[in-house]
Amino acid sequence: MVRTFQLRVSLKEEAIPGILKKKAAKHVNAQESNIVVKVLRKSIDARKPRIYINYKLEVFINEKPSETPDYSFVYKDVSKAKEVHIIGFGPAGMWAALRCLELGFKPVVLERGKNVRDRRKDLKAINQDHIVGEDSNYCFGEGGAGTYSDGKLYTRSIKRGDVRRIFESLVHHGATAQILIDAHPHIGTNKLPKIVQNIRETIIEHGGEIHFDTRVVDFTITNNTIKAIQLQNGNEMVTNRVILATGHSARDIYYLLHKKEIALQAKSFAMGVRVEHPQHIIDSIQYHCSGERNELLPAASYSLVEQVKNRGVYSFCMCPGGFIVPAATAPGEVVVNGMSPSKRNNLFANSGIVVEINADEDLRKYEQHGVLKGLEFQKDFERLAFTAGGRTQTAPAQRLTDFVEGNLSNDLNSTSYQPGLKSVPMHSLLPKAIGSRLRGGFKAFGEKMNGYYTSEANIVGVESRTSSPVNIPRKDNLQHPEIEGLFPCGEGGGYAGGIVSAAMDGERCAEAAIEGL
Questions:
Q1: Which end of the chain, N or C, is less surrounded by CB atoms within 10 Å?
Q2: What digits encode the pLDDT tens for the residues 416-425?
Q3: With bands split at pLDDT 50, 70 and 90, how would you rate the model's confidence at 316?
Q4: Class of residue 432 by CB neighbours under 10 A (exposed 0-12, middle 13-18, buried 19+)
Q5: Degrees, nearest 5: CA angle 92-508-203
Q6: Which residues contact 205 (CB under 8 A, 6 or more apart)?
Q7: Please, what is the average pLDDT of the chain?
Q8: How far apart are CA 311 and CA 125, in angstroms?
Q9: Cα–Cα distance between 88 and 507 in angstroms, integer?
Q10: 1 — pLDDT class (breaks 50, 70, 90)
């Protein structure tokens, strides 16, 4: 039977299992020694001054719960099977490859970047030397942008696939089983690389192929059917099924498709800044406390949204106990993103605060770029940040209150952003359509969260890669409407918005690509 209980946050971690068992025994009128308690769900309710941790339990009386996972993953030997080519090894590409193994087809993965270990050197080069590698950075490489992220697994895309199946697959490859329980699960940037490596080893052990440092530069298309993939090294791979899972920052792919007159569509997206507070301020607001938070409570997060001048202004990729990282994918641009380690124990909380950009109404000055108008707007935004920051990966920044009130910050707060910050009048730097709405949004957020609007917070620019500004269309069978054998997938195609939704889309595209082979 299933029971739900609330516990007040005045306990120690080690006391929880015993108390849950005692409460369960009382509810089912059984001896504690005769029951086994299994936690199904854990969530925190901090809406009132008295904070509760809610547990949903399954109680077994005179029996033990099954140790068998809800899902089993049987990967076949595909070394001699028919091939499906997958471009990109982020979440969409990884789960597309895993699904191919289950269905008995050989995934051949082409990843422009490096494996997780070698990729670290290039991340160090960005942070310390301000050198951006165009094929290996925080966005490109094994695991994609998701590898070096918070590993947030919460998704609203529950109708697009089996969320639980993706979670179970992550646990199968080394993630903690806690992600099956937490209401807002995350893994952590320090844990994700090992999981990504385990997925790679699964694919290779069962006969799949993964080619790193392999950038795709062209497609051979005959009679509207994809026939081959051209690589930067001059090699060619013959194919008849291509899953395009290149992520939202592979701009060269959009340019290539556009040049070949393959249908694309402009897509609405969002851009803005990243705001960084000391974590203790967010804790004090969310947990109604003045001192240190209780050990049972994680670093507090928030989710905010406000309509300002007919556009949504909202928090994006909120990282409690995290740090800001440089997410540029080419020299001459500054882009910021956020991530958190598994313990979320850094001194700062950061979040993107972004403004909706309507592709039909807000980009009229970029109409000459056609379907790529949003991409060109992004690029101008990022180049402006690069110039303002001093033409390095140093990011332009301002104290939050100075930004809203239109004052230059004489100095800046401490930051987690390794390349450093430069005080810049962001209130005059940002396009009016974005800056004015951000100011209105921050004022509203300060009213919703007393203490959020503070001079102890910095805003850091620019947060521009929230999602793809381009959509690669596809039919109901997930195939491009013009090119037979081409399956746009994941965030790069405009069909996902995070690790889990991208993984689910990767599985669906694998199933669609295999049909008829």
A1: N
A2: 999 999 999 9
A3: very high
A4: exposed
A5: 55
A6: none
A7: 93
A8: 37
A9: 14
A10: low
Dist CA 337 CA 509 (whole Å): 28
**pLDDT tens digits for range 6-57:** 655 556 778 888 889 998 999 889 999 999 999 999 999 988 888 888 999 9
Model-level pTM greater than 0.90? yes
Which element (helix H / strand E) includes 25?
Answer: helix 16-28
Tokens of 73: 């993953």
Q: Is the dihedral of CA 104, 106, 111, 116 positive or negative?
A: positive
Distance, CA of 95 to CA of 227 (rounded, Å):
24
CA distance 105 to 498: 26
Tokens standing for residue 486: 């081409």
Nearest CA to 187 out of 339, 72, 42, 293 is that of 339
Q: Distances from the Cα of 320 to the Cαs of 257, 340, 346, 434, 495, in angstroms?
A: 38, 7, 8, 25, 26
- Within 8 A by CB and 6+ apart from 30, the residues are 61
Q: Which residue's entry shows tokens 């089993």? A: 72
DSSP-derived 3-state class of residue 336: strand
Of 438, 429, 444, 440, the closest CA to residue 395 belongs to: 429
Cα 396 to Cα 420: distance, rounded to the nearest angstrom: 9
CB-CB contact of 9 with 53 (8 Å):
yes
